[in-house]
Design brief:
Spore Coat Polysaccharide Biosynthesis Protein SpsA, Chain A, ten-stranded mixed β-sheet, transferase, 6 helices, nucleotidyltransferase activity, five-stranded parallel β-sheet, alpha/beta, about 20% helix, Nucleotide-diphossugar_trans, 2 domains, UDP N-Acetylglucosamine Acyltransferase, domain 1, Nucleotidyl transferase domain-containing protein, about 325 residues, elongated
């Protein structure tokens, strides 16, 4: 079973982190986001993913590809890559996977995190979408059912709130070749949708109109890491859910207030950490206070007080207090 992850966008809402860290590799309590996505599919389908195809933009660096490959190989998965030459929409991104669209295929956005509420209704389903009820689904896509409860249509960014069964962006397709045919037809006929782009929701709707049997599977939790604020809120939600194992605190961790996560390979000395703090591997926090903040791998926070901050890999905050958002290797210091 193959998972296709479109990530060809420029990640502007996640800058400066996205300059060096793609969304699938954002750390979440010691594990990259892509591993949590894979675990969700494995839990919902009852079997693991074999390969992940990342659809990147044309400027994706060799370092990014190497890091994504290493993350997959560390969990026994093959990693493959396709390129979306220009950002023409989500359906266009998946179409760029080309020959990878065969057999059983999963698709999921790089910034979508979900937890299945139970096993997916595989059975004779040709298409499964994970969904959640929301009060106002107009920013998303929705499933529309007939009077008998059968899914008969999918609508991207509906104009009303009549239908609230919202698509979280995670799908299973039994026949990837059928999806490829639909995508190719959309591109050939220039069938753009919302926002003037090729929408993946429209492609799945075409499968339904072509007679595919569709089922939905509820999610117990739906989070995303698409913006700096939502990334920090996702960390907070995972901590509130108890996903930080207190036994995982590093041997040198002290002054940590729950719920928080301190990686075993991080160091906390003479400091107060938490609540809602995440300190990743190799980070050092000394003579500081860190709350409601993310300190990524290899970063250093010394003689500082941080709140609602995101400190990128190997970045340094020294002698200052406040709210900071730093990209990788950035430094802010009190030199007085």
């Amino acid at each position: 079973m193959r998972l296709i992850v479109p990530m060809g966008g420029r990640g502007t809402r996640l800058r400066p982190l996205s300059h060096t860290t793609p969304k699938p590799l954002l750390p979440l309590l010691g594990r990259p986001a892509i591993v949590r996505i894979l675990d969700a599919f494995a839990a919902g389908l009852g079997r693991p993913v074999d390969e992940v195809v990342f659809v990147t933009g044309p400027d994706a660096s060799a370092d990014v590809r190497g890091a994504l490959t290493a993350a997959c190989e560390a969990h026994g998965l093959r990693a493959a890559f396709a390129v979306q030459p220009e950002p023409l929409g989500t359906a266009h991104a998946v179409a760029c996977a080309g020959a990878a669209l065969e057999g059983e295929v999963l698709t999921c956005w790089a910034d979508t995190l979900f937890a299945p509420a139970g096993p997916a209704p595989l059975g004779a389903a040709d298409l499964i979408a994970w969904t959640v009820e929301v009060e106002d689904p107009r920013r998303f896509g929705v499933a529309v059912r007939d009077e008998g409860g059968r899914v008969v249509r999918l609508v991207e960014k509906p104009q009303t709130t009549e239908h609230r069964e919202t698509l979280v962006g995670a799908y299973y397709v039994r026949d990837g070749a059928a999806l490829r045919t639909v995508l190719d037809d959309m591109l050939a006929s220039k069938a753009t949708g919302a926002g003037g782009e090729y929408q993946l929701t429209d492609a799945y709707d075409r499968l339904v109109q072509n007679g595919a049997r569709m089922e939905t599977a509820p999610v117990a939790r739906w989070l995303d890491t698409g913006t700096l604020d939502s990334y920090r809120q996702t960390v907070r939600a995972l901590l509130e859910a108890g996903e930080a194992d207190p036994a995982g605190l590093g041997p040198e961790a002290e002054g940590v207030e729950a719920p928080s996560f301190v990686h075993p390979e991080a160091v906390v000395r003479r400091s107060r950490v938490g609540p809602y703090a995440m300190i990743e591997a190799g980070a050092v926090v000394e003579d500081a206070e860190v709350r409601d903040s993310v300190v990524m791998a290899g970063a250093a926070v010394r003689r500082a007080r941080l709140a609602a901050s995101v400190i990128g890999e190997r970045a340094v905050v020294d002698g200052l207090s406040g709210t900071f958002v730093l990209g990788a290797d950035a430094e802010v210091r009190d030199d007085v």
